[in-house]
Amino acid sequence: MPRNAGPAAEVIRAAGGLVWRDTSRGRLIALVHRPKYDDWTFPKGKLNRSERWQKGALREVREETGLGVRLGAFAGGCAYVTGGRPKVVLYWNMEVDGKHRFAPADTDEVDALEWRSAARARRLLTYERERRLLAESLAGGARARSKRRRR
Fold this sequence. Notes:
It is a single chain. With 151 residues, the protein is an alpha+beta fold. Helix content is 27%, strand content 38%. It contains four helices and seven strands. Strands 1, 2, 3, 4, 5, 6 and 7 form a seven-stranded mixed beta sheet that branches. A hairpin with a 2-residue loop joins strand 1 and strand 2.
C-alpha cells in the first residue's frame, strides 16, 4: 500500500469481477469504459457500508454491465491510494449466466462494454494493476476451471 494516505484515512472498500464468457471466437473477458476517467477497466465499485465483498461484487457487475453473472473463484485484489485515502478492491472470476446484452444502470458511469480475448484485454486495460490481476488470474487457472465445468 502506498504510504501517502493519512493515518486516520478510512479505507475505501470496493469489489468487482473478471467476467468471462465462452463464444465461438474463444473465451472472452468483459471490460468497461468509464467516461468520467476515460479508462478501460474491470466492472467494479464501492461497497455499501455493511455489504459483504461477494454480494457487492455481484451488485456492482450487474449495475455496471446489466449482465446476469454467476460468482466463481476469488481472482485477487489490489490496493492503492485515491484522493488521499487508501482503497482496497477485491475481484472474483464470474461467468455470464443468462442475458448477454449490455445494459448499465447509469451510462454516465459506464458507457461501453467490450468483450476481448485475454491478450487483447491486457492491451486495452488502462491500469497496470489490472493487467497484473488478469495475468495472475490466468496463471491460477481461471481458463482451466471454466473448461472443466463445460465437460
